[in-house]
Write a structure and sequence with these properties.
By secondary structure, the chain is α+β, with helices and mostly antiparallel strands. The protein has eleven helices and 14 strands.
């Protein structure tokens, strides 16, 4: 459960969520008695869960039922599932109920010692963000929102390609969980079909010639529900989730989170030692854009052409009327026709 989910210092909404996470009906009277509060307080907490995007059924004479939620995130359960070598590198791992942004919270802390990491997860973010300041929508229980801070001993030469490396690490974690079919969309999205499954946001703090501290944010859709998927689609960015991607029944979000963290830690160690090279072929095999007509919104304008993969430094190559152009940043969309 989120930190202290069973204690009185935890927000009531988190405690109600934990009680309802088994997906069964619980009466308001039962919840009130179990949590030591009034039925009115339970009703207010249920309303708050709905406001945060959770799908909550309320049926007369049966009570409340949370749809699509699984085991609450719990730091101890995630840590015990980490591979031994990754666990040794994670000096601090927290799971909280609600926060503005996990990336912002870690970025405000001092970077961890070189070769180690801190991890912060949240059930709900009030100011979750994607690339270029876009909002990231994730209801309690429906996603994994985590940030991982890491300090390199020296600035890696391929640091600009870190988002691509994290994407490959996420693919590896999903394969371990028997989820296949995900593709990578440059620079840092995971897709299944045309639906966005996950995104990566990287905040960098580096000094010339010295240590580089990064905060890696991962948002992975687990079970968004039909209503939220429709809301996301209305923004022009179709989404999907792990349930639709074939996550085996019985795999908890704590297992998924541990898989992501373990794969990222192993990947960061390899990236510091060898750069992008060990990840290139896997990235190219999963490239969702290669050979497709695309538009690239770059700082110097919009370019149109055919995506031709990435180069040895992780830049996107696009064949245009004026020749092949190289992009190190930008937003890419697939053109129809």
């Amino acid at each position: 459960m989120p930190r202290g989910a069973g204690s009185e210092d935890t927000p009531l909404v988190a405690r109600v969520f934990a009680q309802l996470s088994d997906g069964r009906f619980h009466s308001g009277e039962e919840l009130a008695s179990s949590l030591g509060v009034s039925r009115s307080a339970v009703w207010k907490a249920a309303s708050q869960l709905r406001e945060q995007g959770a799908v909550l059924h309320a049926v007369r004479n049966r009570g409340y039922r949370l749809v699509g939620a699984g085991e609450p995130l719990e730091a101890s359960r995630i840590r015990e599932r980490l591979p031994r070598e990754a666990r040794a590198c994670v000096r601090r791992l927290e799971a909280v109920w609600s926060i503005g942004s996990t990336n912002t919270a870690l970025a405000e802390r001092a970077g961890p010692p070189a070769g180690s990491s801190e991890v912060l997860l949240a059930e709900y973010q009030t100011a979750g963000r994607g690339r270029r300041g876009r909002a990231w929508l994730a209801p309690p229980g429906g996603a994994i929102c985590l940030s991982l801070s890491w300090t390199f001993r020296e600035v890696p030469p391929d640091l600009g390609a870190l988002g691509l490396v994290v994407g490959v690490c996420m693919l590896r974690a999903l394969r371990e969980l028997e989820v296949s079919g995900a593709l990578l969309k440059w620079p840092n999205d995971l897709l299944v079909g045309d639906g966005k499954l996950a995104g990566v946001l990287i905040d960098l703090r580096a000094e010339s010639g010295g240590p580089a501290s990064v905060v890696i944010g991962i948002g992975l859709n687990v079970a968004l529900g039909a209503q939220l998927l429709e809301r996301v689609a209305e923004t022009g960015i179709p989404a999907t989730d792990l349930l639709r991607a074939g996550l085996p029944q019985g795999v908890s979000r704590n297992e998924v989170a541990a898989g992501l963290i373990g794969a990222c830690v192993r990947g960061l160690v390899a990236f510091e030692e060898q750069g992008l090279q060990p990840f290139l072929e896997e990235w190219r095999q999963a490239d969702a854009l290669r050979g497709r007509a695309v538009s690239v919104n770059a700082p110097d304008g919009t370019a149109r052409g055919v995506a031709r993969g990435i180069d040895l430094r992780g830049a996107l190559l696009v064949e245009t009327r004026d020749g092949v152009r190289r992009f190190v940043s930008g937003d890419v969309s697939v053109r129809a026709g």
